Amino acid sequence: MAVNKDPIAKKCRAFDISPAVMGYGNKKSNRNPGGNRRKKVSEYGAQLKEKQKVKFVYGVQEKQFHKYFLKAANMKGITGDNMMTLLELRLDNVVYRLGLAKTRRMARQIVGHGHIRVNGNKVDIPSYEVKVGDVITLRQRSAEMDMFKVLREGTAVVTPKWLTFDAQNLTGTVAAMPGRDDIDLQVQENMIVEFYSR
Length: 198
Description:
Layout: H1 8-14, H2 43-58, H3 62-73, H4 79-88, H5 91-98, H6 104-112, E1 116-118, E2 121-122, E3 135-138, H7 146-152, E4 163-166, E5 171-174, H8 189-196
Antiparallel strand pairs: 1-2, 1-3, 3-5, 4-5
Helix pairs in contact: 2-8, 3-4, 4-8, 5-6
């Protein structure tokens, strides 16, 4: 399993996104400000940048990302929106959105270590696709860990409207399919579709 270990602040600056999108509230990098700015970016370069940005945010490698595109292209509706919905439905992303992890990288690790249960069954695959009605819980032993106990006291995480979260029982439910409006990432997914459609 490939893991992206690129520096967060440096990549955020390169993609012009806030580190808060990645779950890092106060990460900053002032080294070489404006060093990555070019006067003119080609159409291909702009498309590539959008693709790399989404891959970086969701922690997905190229082969897997291309599979998401192909799956989205075969679904009904707009390909770009379908692709973003598929990425949002990844288990590691859902764990992050519920506030069980501070970052998507941390969520990926929590899932990989077997702390998460989906409908009562252990799932340790970060890319597992959740469905409407799925109930995400913590393993009973894991719920006693300090990092999760804090959540019971009240979390500052704003859960998206397509998810519900019961802080007392540390239980989340997928209430609906996420729409494009529910995804806060500023990205032009149509450019990614154009990139793969060349």
